[in-house]
Every structure is written in structure tokens, then in C-alpha cells.
Design goal:
By secondary structure, the chain is of the alpha/beta class. The protein contains 13 helices and 20 strands. A ten-stranded mixed beta sheet has the order 9-7-5-2-10-1-11-15-19-20, with helices on both faces. Strands 14, 16, 17 and 18 form a four-stranded mixed beta sheet that branches.
Length: 428
């Protein structure tokens, strides 16, 4: 089973880094295929915590080749800062490969991202301001800068000047900001060329050859299903395809080569930024979940919105992504609750709806219909087999599994690398 996709099943922050790390020692390549440094993975190894933003989690696993594929947008300054920080902590980062076709985030993308969001006022989307959306917009508008352009000063200069012809008018006349000098951007990007060059490759070719040789490749999605630009809560979404289909377009590996889709789902629900969130809690329970789960953004530090588990969203993710296995994370956070509500359907204008409504207006007004399940008080962090869990915790997992559309193959019972219960082999 050489090609495996790992994605988030909710609005991100489900613990994909932990799931990737669980598989890391058994795979040969870990590929990031979408997004940029607008999201993060936190991986705990022993007493060390690593916060990754742009780099694939596989960079922390010995012998694994981490790949930033063509579907990613790359802030080169952030890339080198992350690499330097890991190197300073003794992590070998020499194996990293970066696609020549990946698009580059520049200073003007970050500037436009921030001023546009402020300009929207009450209609703000909740962007991180890191230039992700404007970079993808340039990609689609065919005025983007790709990694390979940095090695041809003439081409780079032409592309930057072409992009800024329009953007400087926008900055000056609409946003009342100073114009950006093309020379400033070109000089900045050229300064990275020598260090970047050894990392750059035709990653599509590398990955297909690896699969031909029977090696195992893990495709790691940034953000999550409900933030997918096509299938998420549009317009409160990211600017790329965070679902399993994005793994093919974002890496140059054909869809028929993928064998398994693993979706990570949290034992409750969170999201960052604006947009509909049916199970969101605005009371002490929400604050309790945020505090217990340390629900603050890895990249931004922003407090996450919190709510109970939403089974229709899990079913939607199972359908959209073709999920073969769920990894349930942060079950330990729920320890101490006497009763645990789970959303099993929605009330939309007085009618019961069992699936995620296709209409964003209906979804925005959807009210969760809850079932309550018994909680538990025992510490579960030491559990390594399913039967080690308290009866109520096992029943909670089994109830969620029945509601969610695919089997729960692994269960996170704590933040550390080994605090996980494996029910089914994810690669078998």
C-alpha cells in the first residue's frame, strides 16, 4: 500500500502532526501538497515539542524524505527560519525537497492580504495575513512567481514587474498604501537562490519513481475538509484543496495510485476564524474545552472556537474524501465530564437534517441536535490497548465510529508521541 493520503476531517487543528508522526517511521516520503505557513502541526517527541508551519511533519522522522510539492505556496524566509530552528535543535533537515513548480509568497502578497482583510471590516474572513490567498490568486491569474523563476533573474524580473503593475495601482488608489518597488522584491528573492537551489527538484518525478520502486509515500494535507476552497464553508475557507483530491493535483501523482485515505478527527470540534460552526459553545463548557485542550493556534496563537463533536461533519468528510480510516485525537481532553453531548443531526428551520446542508445559509442557521453519552473520570493517558480504556470511553469511541462513516483505527489519549491506542494497522 504505497500511497496514503492523510487529511483533516473538521476545520483543522485536529492533530494531523501526531498522526503523521505515528506513520513516519514506516514511510519513505512525507509530502505536503497544499497550503502554506498559515497552519501548523505540533508534534511532541519525548519532552520536546516541535511547532511546524510550512515543513511536512515527516522532517522529524529519521530516514524519511520530506517534500514540499507543487500545490504548496512557499514563503522562503519562513522556510529557512524553520529549517534553522530545527537544525539548532539537532534535527537533520538535509533531505528536504522543494518542487520547482511551487509558487512563492512575496512581500507584496503579505501586504495585500493584510490590507484587504482590514478593508472588509465586518465581512472579514479571518485570514492569517500571511499572503496565502493572494499568492493562490496570482497562481490562478497566471501572474504568480514559481520557485524555478528565482534561478533566472531575467524571467523573475519580468514576472515581478508584471505582477506589480496592477498591484501598485491597487495599493496606492484603493488602500492608500505606498507602492512596492519591483527591485526590492527581486533582490529579496535572489538572495535566497544559492541556498535554495540544492533543495529544488522535479518532485512529481521523484515521487512517481519512488512509488514505482514500491516505496511508501504519505501525502499530508494542510488545513482540513471544512476549509477546502470547493467543499468547505465557503467563503470562510482556505485558498487550496485540502481534501484528498488535492493530493493528486498538488503533487503530480495520479489519483489511481492512492490506496488509503486517513482522516484525523478531534474528539470534540474547533475552528479558527470566521464562519458557521453549529456546535460552537459560548459558555463555560467552551472555555473548559479551550483550556483543557490548549486550543490556541500553532501559527497565530489565536484562541480557537470550541464545540462538541459534530457527527454530520465527520460523515461529510468520510464521503468527500473516501475515508478508509479515522484517527480520533484528544480523547483525553474529555476526561472528567459526567455527560458528553454529541451532535447527531441539525435542526434547520424546524426540520431535522441528518447531513451537512449544501446551502451555506442553511448551514449557518443550523442548530445541533444532541445526544448525550456518559463520561469518565479515569486518567486514560497510559492506555495502549482499546480494552485499557474505561468502559464509558470505549462506548464513546464506538458511538462516534458508528455515526461517522468509517472505522476509528487509532485513538489519541495524550499529547506525547506514544500516547495513542491503535485498533487497526493504518498501513495494512
Amino acid at each position: 500500500m504505497p500511497a496514503v493520503v492523510l487529511i483533516g476531517a473538521q476545520w483543522g487543528d485536529e492533530g494531523k502532526g501526531k498522526a503523521t508522526d505515528l506513520l513516519g517511521s514506516r514511510v519513505d516520503y512525507v509530502v505536503k501538497f497544499n497550503g502554506g505557513n498559515n497552519a501548523g502541526h505540533t508534534v511532541v517527541i519525548g519532552d520536546k515539542k516541535y511547532a511546524l508551519h510550512l515543513l511536512p511533519s515527516g522532517i522529524l522522522s529519521d530516514g524519511v524524505v520530506p517534500v514540499i510539492a507543487n500545490g504548496v505556496v512557499v514563503d522562503i524566509e519562513v522556510l529557512f527560519n524553520e529549517l534553522d530552528a530545527l537544525s539548532a535543535r539537532g534535527v537533520d533537515v538535509s533531505r528536504l525537497l522543494v518542487s520547482a513548480n511551487a509558487h512563492v509568497i512575496t512581500h507584496y502578497h503579505r501586504t495585500i492580504d493584510k490590507v484587504t482583510e482590514r478593508f472588509l471590516g465586518k465581512r472579514q474572513i479571518g485570514t492569517t495575513g500571511r499572503g496565502i490567498g493572494p499568492t493562490y490568486a496570482d497562481k490562478i491569474n497566471r501572474v504568480g512567481i514559481r520557485v524555478q523563476d528565482i534561478f533566472d533573474e531575467g524571467i523573475l524580473r519580468q514576472k515581478v514587474e508584471g505582477a506589480l503593475d496592477q498591484k501598485n495601482h491597487l495599493l496606492l488608489k484603493v488602500y492608500n498604501r505606498r507602492a512596492i518597488s519591483p527591485e526590492e522584491i527581486v533582490d529579496d528573492l535572489l538572495s535566497y537562490a544559492d541556498r535554495l537551489r540544492p533543495m529544488v527538484a522535479d518532485t512529481s518525478l521523484v515521487l512517481n519513481r519512488a512509488l514505482d520502486e514500491g516505496q511508501t509515500v504519505l501525502f499530508e494535507g494542510g488545513q482540513a475538509t471544512m476549509l477546502d476552497v470547493d467543499h468547505g464553508t465557503y467563503p470562510f475557507v482556505t485558498s487550496s484543496n485540502a481534501t484528498s483530491g488535492g493530493a493528486a493535483t498538488g503533487s503530480g501523482v495520479a489519483p489511481n495510485r492512492f490506496d488509503r485515505v486517513i482522516a484525523v478527527v478531534k474528539a470534540y470540534t474547533t475552528r479558527v476564524g470566521a464562519g458557521p460552526f453549529p456546535t460552537e459553545l459560548h459558555d463555560e463548557s467552551g472555555e473548559w474545552l479551550r483550556g483543557r485542550g490548549f486550543e490556541f493556534g500553532t501559527t497565530t496563537g489565536r484562541p480557537r472556537r470550541t464545540g462538541w463533536y459534530d457527527a454530520p461533519i465527520a460523515r461529510y468528510s468520510a464521503r468527500i474524501n473516501g475515508v478508509t480510516d479515522f484517527v480520533l485525537t484528544k480523547l483525553d481532553v474529555l476526561t472528567g465530564l459526567e455527560r458528553i453531548p454529541v451532535a447527531v443531526a441539525y435542526d434547520v428551520d424546524g426540520m431535522r437534517v441528518d447531513e451537512v446542508p449544501v446551502s451555506q445559509s442553511d448551514f449557518h442557521h443550523a442548530k445541533p441536535i444532541y445526544e448525550e453519552l456518559p463520561g469518565w473520570s479515569e486518567d486514560i493517558s497510559g492506555a495502549r490497548e482499546f480494552d485499557d480504556l474505561p468502559r464509558a470511553a470505549r462506548d464513546y469511541v464506538l458511538a462516534l465510529e458508528e455515526m461517522s462513516g468509517s472505522r476509528f483505527s487509532a485513538i489519541g489519549v495524550g499529547p506525547a508521541r506514544d500516547e495513542i491506542v491503535v485498533r487497526h494497522d493504518l498501513l495494512d
